[in-house]
User: Which sequence fits this backbone?
């Protein structure tokens, strides 16, 4: 994404906050006006330090005019303080509101992105964009507005006052200024790519750390700590090199512009001193006070260039981070289903007609699949790893849309109804358990918030989870992840209870008992048998002993249904299913 495009998107984000931006600009002008006028009155106070001889023949100083100049200086300081207070207040409000809106939009975008986007990236990379990149962008925005507003106002204000006071000296300052601008532009133009590379390296490191923390048990089980340290060191070294390159190159702006500023200060002192000597005794002398004022102005004039050069470096980083944020927000969403009818009064008839699907277009997976399942039937799906079992589930839930063909529920094409209504009619228990950081009660009622206390307890009893829930510190009000730690089997029992509480007309069980011991599995299978009565059920299973009572068993291989029938029929056919079955019961 080009910098101009990113900057345009930032301006669009700032548009709703224009009253606060106007207030920021007004506060910057007030603050700068106070800063500019203070040296002017200091110079006037110095010119008031002249001796006069009183009646007694002593040399004295009239402090009355000096006190008046001090009063003016105090007013300038007060205006500067008030202006800076309002400036930071309004600027912070704009920056944090923009940050909040960006994070909100990025999080909303994740919820409507197709699963292919999430599946194709490390979770840590996506979270890094929302958290780290957004924070970097906010910091750059805060610093940028504060320094840019005050810096620009200071430069213009000082130039105007200097030209009004003495155009000869002001012209010297103005002629040397382009050196500082050219140096800052030269460096800034080369830092954007460096900061973008730094942001990408940071995201890669975050993604790896997130992945390793999530799989720490597996890492320890395979004693892979040393290898992970080597990989992390490599990522860390890559980030270090990119960070050093970006920061070193961007940090050269400050010493370069400071050198130019020192040249400006020296020239002002030289020209001012010569001018003071040349105009001494004339009608319009260049006084010592004027020289002092101009030396202060030369510092005030050149200081914003230092600050702006720092801001430019920081702003390049902010733009690079903003580019990643806007790239996420701009990702194509799932096709909208607004206006489509809802799937209602579902009985559970499911039909798959000539369906084709592949994750990568050059690698076909499912081709020409046909399937018809009557309402209330139990369908088991078996086959070797990678044969397409979970893919079929993804298509039924519309986590992915078919490339060709149609899937019908009660005769309605699921591609022509709302996803929400489709998924509300499916209960799903996966092999990978997911529970949010909340109470047990909130996790169980996630799919049915209107459930009563007794309904929740009945679902937990049916899933054989009630007993261990009561043993938690606060029972059903225990906050998981903070007060209560559960085993994988217990977590899966809670997921099963969650579906039992929803009681949908169709069920999907993807290795739902994989983390449960044999004794509990028998109890849960009995509970599932009751739950599946009258409901269309799709059961993905590796343990073939659990699906003997299925009404239909689909045997998949390389994305195709190679066999179908009951357990007895498939054994009698002496085909691939029998090979799988006997492999599990070889003894």
Assistant:
């Amino acid at each position: 994404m080009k910098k101009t495009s990113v900057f345009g998107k930032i301006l669009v984000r700032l548009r709703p906050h224009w009253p606060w931006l106007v207030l920021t600009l007004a506060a910057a002008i007030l603050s700068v006006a106070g800063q500019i006028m203070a040296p002017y009155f200091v110079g006037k106070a110095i010119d008031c330090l002249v001796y006069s001889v009183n009646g007694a023949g002593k040399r004295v100083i009239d402090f009355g005019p000096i006190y008046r100049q001090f009063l003016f200086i105090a007013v300038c300081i007060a205006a500067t303080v008030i202006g800076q207070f309002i400036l930071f207040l309004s600027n912070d409000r704009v920056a944090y509101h923009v940050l909040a809106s960006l994070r909100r939009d990025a999080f909303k975008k994740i919820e409507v992105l197709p699963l292919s986007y999430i599946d194709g990236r490390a979770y840590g990379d996506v979270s890094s964009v929302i958290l780290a990149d957004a924070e970097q962008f906010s910091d750059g925005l805060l610093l940028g507005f504060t320094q840019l507003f005050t810096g620009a106002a200071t430069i213009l204000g000082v130039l105007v006052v200097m030209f009004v006071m003495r155009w000869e000296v002001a012209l010297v300052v103005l002629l040397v200024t382009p050196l500082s601008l050219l140096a800052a532009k030269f460096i800034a133009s080369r830092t954007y790519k460096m900061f973008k590379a730094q942001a990408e390296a940071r995201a890669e490191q975050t993604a790896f750390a997130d992945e390793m923390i999530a799989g720490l048990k597996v890492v320890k089980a395979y004693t892979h700590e040393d290898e992970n340290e080597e990989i992390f060191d490599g990522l860390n070294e890559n980030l270090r090199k990119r960070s050093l390159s970006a920061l070193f190159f961007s940090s050269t702006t400050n010493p370069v512009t400071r050198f130019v500023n020192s040249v400006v200060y020296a020239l002002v002192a030289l020209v001012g001193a010569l001018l003071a000597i040349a105009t001494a005794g004339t009608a319009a002398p260049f006084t010592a006070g004027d020289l002092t004022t101009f030396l202060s102005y030369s510092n005030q004039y050149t200081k914003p260039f230092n600050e702006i050069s720092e801001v430019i470096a920081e702003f390049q980083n902010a733009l690079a981070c903003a580019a990643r944020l806007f790239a996420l927000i701009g990702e194509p969403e799932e096709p909208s289903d607004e206006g489509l009818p809802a799937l209602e009064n579902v009985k559970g008839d499911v039909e798959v007609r000539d369906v084709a699907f592949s994750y990568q277009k050059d690698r076909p997976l499912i081709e020409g699949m046909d399937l018809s399942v009557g309402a209330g039937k139990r369908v088991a799906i078996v086959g070797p790893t990678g044969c397409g079992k979970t893919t079929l589930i993804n298509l039924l839930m519309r986590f992915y849309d078919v490339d060709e063909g149609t899937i019908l529920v009660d005769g309605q094409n699921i591609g022509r109804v709302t996803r929400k209504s489709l998924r509300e009619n499916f209960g799903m228990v996966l092999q990978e358990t997911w529970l949010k950081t909340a109470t047990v009660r909130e996790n169980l009622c996630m799919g049915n918030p209107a459930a009563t206390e007794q309904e929740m307890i009945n679902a937990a009893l049916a899933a054989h989870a009630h007993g261990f829930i009561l043993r938690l510190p606060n029972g059903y009000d225990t906050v998981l992840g903070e007060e209560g730690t559960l085993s994988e089997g217990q977590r899966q029992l809670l997921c099963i209870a969650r579906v039992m509480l929803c009681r949908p007309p169709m069920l999907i069980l993807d290795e739902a008992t994989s983390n449960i011991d044999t004794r509990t599995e028998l109890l849960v299978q009995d509970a599932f048998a009751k739950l599946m009565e009258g409901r269309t059920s799709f059961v993905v299973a590796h343990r073939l002993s659990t699906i003997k009572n299925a009404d239909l068993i689909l045997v998949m291989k390389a994305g195709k249904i190679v066999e179908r029938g009951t357990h007895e029929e498939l054994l009698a056919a002496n085909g691939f299913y029998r090979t799988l079955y006997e492999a599990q019961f070889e003894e």
In short: Residues 63-112 form the longest helix (50 residues). The chain has three domains: 3-329, 337-425+506-515+536-587, 433-503. The first strand starts at residue 51 and ends at 53.
